[in-house]
Every structure is written in C-alpha cells, then in structure tokens.
C-alpha cells in the first residue's frame, strides 16, 4: 500500500487473493507484462466465461441524485501473464477483455444505464491487481494506458492533481487468482480520501448473502458528520468543496508526504481553496502533521530502550519484541539473540512516513518478518496504541481519548465509526488490516457482487 508513482507500488498488492489497501494520491502507472502490444504474449480481445456478476444499485438521493446515465464504471485487471485489459460488456451482455494496444489509449467506461440493461458487469475467473472506478457526471474520469519500463501500464487518477482531485470518483479493488476453487477478495478504500459511499455485498449461487462491507450512508450524511466532529484542524480542514458541493475528504498520509505543496505543485486546488476560505495554510497543515506524533515518538523512545523493556506482539505464531537503540528501532523474534534494524524514527523526526505507511515503513519483497513489524508499528501509531498496549485486538480501545486532544489518526477514527461504516471496518490507513480492522471481504463461493453507491 503505497503512494503511486508506479502502480506496481501504486496501490494494493493483490497477490494470491490477499488484498492490502492502496493509495492513489500521486496517480502514476503500474507496468504490465504484455509488452508493447499489451497482449501478454499473444492475448487477444474477446469474450470470457462469467465467474462473478457485478450488479449496481443507484441509491444517490436528495440534492446529489445522479441518474444511471450519469454514473460511470471503469474496470481493469491483469491476466495471468501480467497484461492489462479493460473489463468490458458487449451489447449482448457478455463480458469481454479489451487489451491495451498502445500508450495513451483510454480505458473503456460504461454508465449504469448501459450495464443494468445488460444484466450487470461480468468478471472473469482470473483477476489480479484489479480496480473498479466509479465516477459521477456527464462523462467518466479519464484513465489511460502509458508506457512503463516493463510494458504498458495503467495511469490511475491522482487526488494530488486538480484535474482528478476536484472530480467525484472513488474505487474498489479486487482479485480472484486461483483458476479452480477461486478465493475472491474485494475491498473499499478510504486510505487516501473519501468521495463516494460504496457498499459491497457478496452472494453465492443461490442468492445467500456472504457478507457486506463499506459505507451505507449518503454523501451528505458523511460530510455533515465530518463537519460536526471534534478533531484537530490539521485533520478537519482537509475537506474540499466546489461551490456548494462537497467533493472529498483527504487523509493525512497524502498531505504529509506530498513533496511540492509549497511550490504550488501537489494539492494546489486544496491549497487555494483553504486560503480563499479562511486563510488556512496547507503548508502549515502539512508541517503540523509532520510534528503531530512527536510526543508519542518521545514516549516510545524513552520507555523501550532494551529488549528486556521492549514492546511485544504475536503474529503468525511468532513473538516479536521491539525496542529503541540510538536512532534505530530493533526487533527480535521468539526471544532470539539476532536483532534486526527495522526503521529510523528518531524523536522529533518527520513522522509523515507513519501517516503514509511509506519510506522506512514501506514493506519490501522478501522481508516478511520486518514487514510485519513495520505494519504493527504503523498501526499502533495511527490508532494511538503505542502507550496503550499496542498489540491489543480490541478495537474499542483504539483512538483514545476522544476529542481534539487525541494523538492518533483522527481521519481513520472517523471512518471506523459505526454510524459511518456499520461494522466498524474501514481502510483508514494502509496497514489497517492489522488485527483485521480493514474493509476487505472475500469468499470462495461468491457468484454475485452487489455494489451500492450513494
């Protein structure tokens, strides 16, 4: 789960059916394995056998009612060779792959009027690194293929860019990667921002519900509750309106890690909006977020200075013990004598990597134990649990105390509220899957996915 400059780091690692929430603040492109023709070594456009039918329910209402002709769906995936394709629906209602042919080719979009008249969007038996974007308006958001060092990739929309950040769109992610006995997984994501309330329900072949995830309230409800909430301005001010219409709430991660806010690069539209609204400085908000966790960092470095006084947690049958030494955070497993450096997070340092789960906290291939510690560390900080027993699985203990004095991710706390997300599960930051507090849902018996938008 990472900022995207490339979609291979761009978002979510949807591998072997495991979904980790992704980030889309920077946009960017993920390379595919299809080579210059995008065909994945000979893959061709054409119909596929339906594995899952995706039906849509339009529950937009009030002053933000959109007809089915104004709600757009753009979906893509990789095939077994790693080549990208648009998931399309032909006029007869048959699902079809349309592969990337050249850079700057736009991905196919269909509105709900077209999809509903043909019995829903069809998904093939194998999908990986797949996303389904939903956008509101007269036309779909523009998503295109681009050249990457490893072939044609997808350039996704970026909330840091005013061309996309000022539009109404959101997405879900999914994967079904085993050709037989498929383990289907899907998640909503508010890792980078919230824009459209999306709720997912999975059903089996006879229509029995296999569970739901997501937000079941209207856009107006979510935005009004955000405005009524008590939290520090560094979080609460990160909401963008266009005239009288709320567009999106932005999480602290993309703002804290943005490289060019002061130079009128990233998030210029939000910077100008806040300045014109009440003189708020987005650069000032960024600086506040970078320093927000310093008191907790100081506590952690002061209280855990040896393995004997370390923080411990259990994951996958292993006991991890972590402690501070100099400027480094070390860990050992199962009481072993081998220590491994995990991250440089000194007192008073820039803590933006905690909000973004990036930089020294970014997971790396082949470093499973170290990645586990990174995820637990980031989750403990985001949830305010570093001084509260950071391995506690009881979500009711997270994000305390209430109010603006809490030193934690107030954005994430908001989206875990049960009046916003009914089961209290959300992707408020990249590693919200620690202790299963994320918005993923999966079931190998899935034959229908119902997506309700509000």
Indicate the topology:
Blueprint: H1 7-10, E1 28-31, E2 46-47, E3 52-58, E4 71-78, E5 84-89, E6 95-99, E7 109-111, H2 112-116, E8 121-123, E9 127-136, E10 144-148, E11 151-156, H3 162-165, E12 169-176, E13 184-188, E14 193-194, E15 198-203, E16 209-214, H4 219-228, H5 233-236, E17 239-242, E18 245-250, H6 252-257, H7 268-278, H8 282-291, H9 294-303, E19 311-315, E20 318-325, E21 328-333, E22 340-344, H10 352-356, H11 368-382, H12 410-415, E23 440-442, E24 448-453
Parallel strand pairs: 3-24
Antiparallel strand pairs: 1-11, 2-6, 3-8, 4-5, 4-7, 4-9, 5-6, 9-12, 10-11, 12-13, 13-23, 14-18, 15-16, 15-24, 17-18, 19-20, 20-21, 21-22
Please tell me about this protein's structure.
The chain has 454 residues and is α+β, with helices and mostly antiparallel strands. It has three domains: 7-218 and 436-453, Thaumatin (Sandwich), CATH 2.60.110; 221-281, no CATH class; 294-406, Metal Transport, Frataxin, Chain A, CATH 3.30.920. Helices cover 20% and strands 28% of the residues. It is built from twelve helices and 24 strands. The protein has helices spanning 7-10, 112-116, 162-165, 219-228, 233-236, 252-257, 268-278, 282-291, 294-303, 352-356, 368-382, 410-415; strands at residues 28-31, 46-47, 52-58, 71-78, 84-89, 95-99, 109-111, 121-123, 127-136, 144-148, 151-156, 169-176, 184-188, 193-194, 198-203, 209-214, 239-242, 245-250, 311-315, 318-325, 328-333, 340-344, 440-442, 448-453. Strands 2, 4, 5, 6, 7, 9, 12, 13 and 23 form a nine-stranded antiparallel β-sheet that branches. A hairpin with a 2-residue loop joins strand 19 and strand 20 (318-325).
């Amino acid at each position: 789960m990472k900022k995207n400059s490339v979609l291979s780091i761009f978002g979510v690692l949807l591998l072997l059916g495991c979904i980790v929430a992704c980030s889309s603040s920077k946009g960017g492109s993920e390379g595919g394995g299809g080579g210059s023709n995008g065909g994945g070594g000979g893959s061709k456009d054409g119909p596929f056998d339906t594995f899952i039918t995706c039906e849509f329910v339009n529950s937009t209402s009030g002053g933000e009612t959109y007809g089915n002709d104004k709600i757009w769906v753009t979906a893509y995936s990789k095939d077994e060779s790693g080549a990208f394709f648009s998931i399309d629906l032909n006029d007869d209602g048959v699902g079809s792959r349309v592969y990337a042919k050249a850079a700057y080719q736009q991905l196919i979009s269909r509105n709900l009027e077209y999809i509903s008249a043909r019995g829903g969007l069809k998904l093939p038996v194998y999908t990986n690194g797949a996303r389904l974007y939903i956008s509101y308006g007269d036309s779909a958001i523009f998503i295109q293929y681009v050249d990457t060092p490893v072939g044609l990739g997808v350039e996704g929309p970026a909330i840091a860019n005013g061309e996309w950040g000022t539009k109404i769109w959101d997405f879900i992610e999914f994967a079904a990667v085993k050709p037989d006995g498929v383990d289907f997984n899907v998640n909503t994501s508010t890792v980078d921002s919230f824009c459209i309330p999306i709720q997912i329900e999975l059903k089996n072949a006879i229509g029995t519900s296999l569970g739901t995830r997501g937000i079941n309230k209207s856009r107006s409800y979510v935005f009004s509750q955000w405005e009524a909430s008590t939290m520090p301005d560094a979080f609460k001010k990160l909401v963008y309106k266009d005239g009288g219409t709320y567009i999106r709430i932005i999480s602290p991660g993309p703002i804290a890690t943005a490289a060019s806010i002061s130079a009128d690069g990233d998030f210029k539209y939000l910077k100008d909006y806040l300045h014109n609204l009440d003189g708020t400085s987005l650069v000032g908000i960024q600086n506040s977020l970078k320093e927000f966790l310093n008191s907790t960092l100081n506590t952690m470095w002061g209280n855990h200075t040896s393995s004997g006084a370390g923080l411990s947690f259990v994951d996958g049958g292993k006991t991890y013990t972590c402690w501070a030494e100099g400027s480094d955070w070390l860990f050992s497993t199962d009481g072993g004598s081998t220590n491994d450096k995990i991250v440089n997070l000194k007192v008073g340092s820039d803590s933006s990597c905690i909000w973004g789960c990036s930089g020294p906290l970014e997971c790396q291939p082949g470093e499973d134990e170290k990645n586990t510690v990174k995820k637990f560390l980031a989750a403990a900080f985001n949830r305010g649990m570093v001084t509260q027993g950071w391995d506690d699985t009881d979500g009711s203990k997270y994000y305390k105390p209430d109010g603006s004095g809490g030193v934690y991710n107030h954005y994430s706390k908001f989206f875990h509220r049960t009046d916003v997300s009914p089961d209290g599960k959300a992707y408020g930051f990249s590693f919200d899957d620690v202790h299963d507090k994320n918005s993923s849902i999966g079931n190998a018996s899935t034959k229908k996915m119902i997506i309700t938008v509000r």
